[in-house]
Amino acid sequence: MIRATVLGLALLGASPALAQCGGDFGTFVDTLKSEATTAGLDPETVDAFFKTVRQDPKVLRADRAQGVFQKPFINFSNRLISQNRVDRGAAMEEKYSDVFDRIEAEYGVNRGVLLAFWAFETDYGGYQGDFNTRNALVTLAHDCRRPELFRPQIFAAMELHARGDFDPDRTKGAWAGEIGMVQMLPRDILVNGVDADDSGKVELASSAPDALVSGAKMLEHMGWRANEPWLQEVVVPDTLDWLLTGASKPRSVAEWQAMGVAAREGDLAAGDMQATIILPQGHKGPAFIAYPNFNVYFEWNQSFVYVLTAAYFATQLEGAPVYQSGTPETGLNGAQMKQLQAKLQERGYDVGEVDGILGARTRAAVQTEQQRLGLPADAWPTPALLRQL
């Protein structure tokens, strides 16, 4: 009964009524405790969960210092993808081949997809973070940047605690509250955790089979389409209308082929499948075709450059060649990107936070302005565009 009640509270946690944040930290914690006991959780369990809770300023600093996502795709991917990670990925694929066989049979998620996440999230389990997870979640829920994301995770963590699967004082992970080898939040663990090695417990920090199968189930829950591709490098003609490109502009594969888009290696997906053309550094840089499963990546991580790098690395781990960098035009540094975003805001565009990160809304605004100014509308901002604005 307690478990169902707390889980119900966790599922309600994203509602506006529960999205309070800020104010005195102690008072905020008292509010959380009151909500948990009102929902039916034993007061002693609640007190034990929050007994040593504290606000963690290191979590807030980490949340504010994500400058790595300002890097362009080529620089970012070169930083994350190393020969060591490629080699270790091959070794892990061989070591856990039976687990990946099971994942592909049950969930239709390719092994490369899980290997890439495993590599990027924790370096194949080697470093899973040393932040106290409870403190991180409560700190981020108290902070008013994204309380709707983190507040429900606190109640999910209490549910895990009630099950005996979460130690408030000892469970550690990433600064944003993710736990285990593929870094899953408590709610995702509740819904998608799998005891794949039949140990009797879901142990995402110590069991690779549990972590990998749970990650695959989570992707399925997010909408992964079984046994379908997600990304592929392509060659695009110079005559392509660049305004048609972008992650929000799907067309059928057959239509792209009719315009001269071709796979760099192998064949494109079926002609009736919807796909987008992504030019992360403009029409002179790398080019990819993204299929519907690519969009699921954004349910895992919302950074465009991270998602594209993870999706590409998954293809590389399955045999795709190193992508062709091309000769992209010089882009903007972080300060220039913030200046660009501010100028776009002045012109009425919603680019979100002025953070120096080239996200989806900034790309869309850039593409519109490029078209207006007679520049190649490839969504890649350059100093020339900034000068004209």
Automatic annotation (TrEMBL):
<dbReference type="InterPro" id="IPR023346">
    <property type="entry name" value="Lysozyme-like_dom_sf"/>
</dbReference>
<feature type="domain" description="Peptidoglycan binding-like">
    <location>
        <begin position="333"/>
        <end position="389"/>
    </location>
</feature>
<feature type="signal peptide">
    <location>
        <begin position="1"/>
        <end position="19"/>
    </location>
</feature>
<keyword id="KW-0732">Signal</keyword>
<dbReference type="InterPro" id="IPR031304">
    <property type="entry name" value="SLT_2"/>
</dbReference>
<dbReference type="InterPro" id="IPR011970">
    <property type="entry name" value="MltB_2"/>
</dbReference>
<dbReference type="Pfam" id="PF01471">
    <property type="entry name" value="PG_binding_1"/>
</dbReference>
<dbReference type="InterPro" id="IPR002477">
    <property type="entry name" value="Peptidoglycan-bd-like"/>
</dbReference>
<protein>
    <submittedName>
        <fullName>Lytic murein transglycosylase</fullName>
    </submittedName>
</protein>
<dbReference type="Pfam" id="PF13406">
    <property type="entry name" value="SLT_2"/>
</dbReference>
<dbReference type="InterPro" id="IPR043426">
    <property type="entry name" value="MltB-like"/>
</dbReference>
<feature type="domain" description="Transglycosylase SLT">
    <location>
        <begin position="25"/>
        <end position="314"/>
    </location>
</feature>
<dbReference type="InterPro" id="IPR036365">
    <property type="entry name" value="PGBD-like_sf"/>
</dbReference>
<dbReference type="InterPro" id="IPR036366">
    <property type="entry name" value="PGBDSf"/>
</dbReference>
